[in-house]
Design brief:
The protein has 11 helices and 7 strands. The chain is globular, with a radius of gyration of 18 Å. By secondary structure, it is an alpha/beta fold. The structure holds S-adenosylmethionine. S-adenosylmethionine (SAM) binds next to helix 1 and helix 4.
């Protein structure tokens, strides 16, 4: 499968009814949460992860954030409301951008948010035009992550910051575990150390690198359990076949997380002045 075909597959997936259905499980934060056990609720723990990333990135009130892969705008609304940020929130899923726009109408800080179509591997913005580059749990879908990192460095002002969370590979899985990891990420995962090195290469000094791996298994167990509990609701939106396929996919995510090789990391950096 070519990189373009893969990109088209991702766009189709996020524009499909099944991902509209998955919002019944995720709410507007489409990523794992800082859960300690799968008894905890997903949504507040996912919001906690977003707020923690904002603290780690030392987000300043009033700053202009470029968010890539913004999902349905949950983080854009949080940053605009709680940090007075101006947010340009971008995505390649037109369906999600429509939902994001709809869900932002009348919300606190809505006037500080602009949604736009943009591919994080080829951002159509001027050099040094943002204070912050932000991307949560989406670069795992990139087949050109170094290019995406170079784009982050290009659009951020010197002294500005980068804030990234992503699912990662921990250690060097072999055999069945390697197959399982390859099955859930076609481009393959980067490690947290890989992100640290890539940000340095792109022109950022490391601020923080936090390992959130212990939250991955409780998060995926919780997501799978919520999907099963809400199955009828999901089927009404996306149909039985799609729902069964997606639950099967989440079994793989849980299995991968249980091996300890599926990690999660939050990495922040500051763009060098020269
Ligand atoms: C797991 S969701 C995360 C959404 C959001 N960051 C959040 O945490 O709520 C992954 C997102 O990546 C977006 N995405 C995938 N490939 C992309 C690309 N090349 N450029 C921009 N967005 C992309 C998808 O459309 C989807 O919104």
């Amino acid at each position: 499968m070519s990189d373009n075909d893969f990109q088209a597959e991702i766009t189709a997936r996020y524009d499909a009814p099944m991902y509209r259905a998955m919002l019944e499980v995720w709410g507007d934060q489409i990523h794992p949460g800082l859960l300690e056990s799968d008894d905890e609720e997903l949504y507040p723990a996912a919001v906690k992860a977003t707020t923690r990333l904002a603290e780690l990135a030392d987000i300043q009130r009033g700053s202009h954030v470029l968010e890539t892969a913004c999902g349905v705008g949950g983080t854009a609304r949080l940053l605009a409301r709680d940090f007075d940020c101006h947010v340009t929130a971008t995505n390649i899923s037109k369906g999600q951008l429509e939902t994001a726009n709809e869900w932002t109408q009348g919300k606190p800080g809505a006037e500080r948010i602009t949604y736009a179509f943009a591919n994080f591997e080829e951002l159509g913005y001027d050099d040094a035009s943002f204070d912050v580059y932000w991307c949560q749990d989406a670069l795992l879908f990139s087949t050109a992550r170094s290019t995406a990192m170079a784009e982050a460095a290009r659009v951020v002002k010197p002294g500005g910051t980068v804030a990234i969370t992503d699912l990662t590979v921990v250690g060097e899985p072999t055999g069945e575990t390697a197959d399982l990891m390859a099955g859930i990420s076609k481009p393959g995962f980067w490690s947290m150390e890989g992100y640290v090195a890539a940000l340095d290469e792109a022109g950022f000094d490391l601020m923080t690198a936090e390992d959130w791996t212990r939250h991955v298994l409780p998060s995926f167990l919780r997501i799978r359990a919520d999907m099963i509990a809400k199955k009828d609701q999901l089927i009404a939106i996306a149909g039985p076949d799609e729902v069964e396929d997606t639950i099967a996919r989440y079994h793989h995510w849980c299995d991968a997380a249980a091996t300890g090789h599926l990690g999660w990391a939050a990495v922040t950096g500051r763009k060098r002045e020269t």
